[in-house]
Amino acid sequence: MSSTATTVVGVGFATTGYHVISTVNARLGLLEGVDGWLQSDVVKWVTGVLLVGFVLGVEGRSLASIGVRPPVELPVVGGLVPDLGGPPVVGHLGTGLGWSVVGFVIIYVTTISVYHLYEWFGLQTPEGFTDEQASRGAVSYWITAVSAGVVESLLYQGYLIPRVTELSGSVVLAAVFAWVAFTAVHGVGDIFGVAETVYIGVPAVGLVLLYIACGSVIVVCFLHFSGALLSF
């Protein structure tokens, strides 16, 4: 299989893999012994592990190719610390924190603005879902937040953006594709309506832009996880 064909297969899996595995699980009852709320998280991790295996074993690439690497340096926190004699890891941590703060502010302001618009027009937001997760207790929403933060970021930002960029030659097209895929997967099933799905897509814009800017899915995972946890 050519490298292009392999990439196309990978993009197809990253885009639809979670839904396909969820459907197979629902029809065959593979996770009957697992609580209903936990099944989606298990499916997420299975999808994520298969994607990592595909990258390493089939594509023969490193995890750095899907963004598992330090972020692009910010001029002060990333470059200043090593220049002053500090260890590079401190610079990486400072840079990651700096990018996280920038991303959090942008996503928070944007999401709050859209939330008020939704209130104004009487549209539904996913509050029911977050309330339900939180009512199950800390273990439940921590698991869900970690699963979403790590696996969804790997699939929809870490993998799709660089691979679709390779195929199309356009990072803009890749960004739009990744955003649509991330948003659409939340609309599959009976958990979210159209308005709720679109609402979820709002912070996803910030995650996509953050990945393109900093080049590290680690930062995106952290921000995605933090946002989900705060919502719960």
**Gyration radius, to the nearest Å?**
18 Å
Amino-to-carboxy terminus distance: 44 Å
Shape verdict? globular
Structural class: mainly alpha
**What integer is the average pLDDT?**
88
Instruction: List low-pLDDT spans.
Output: 78-85
Helicity range of the residues?
over 70%
Number of strands: 0
Number of helices, where a helix is a run of at least 4 consecutive DSSP H or I residues? 9
Largest β-sheet summary: none
Please write the string of helix (H) and strand (E) elements. Answer: HHHHHHHHH
**DSSP strand content:** under 5%
Descriptive account of the structure:
This protein is an all-alpha fold. Helices cover 78% and strands 0% of the residues. It contains 9 helices and no strands. Helix 5 crosses helix 6 and helix 6 crosses helix 8. The N and C termini lie far apart (44 Å). About 3% of the residues have low confidence.
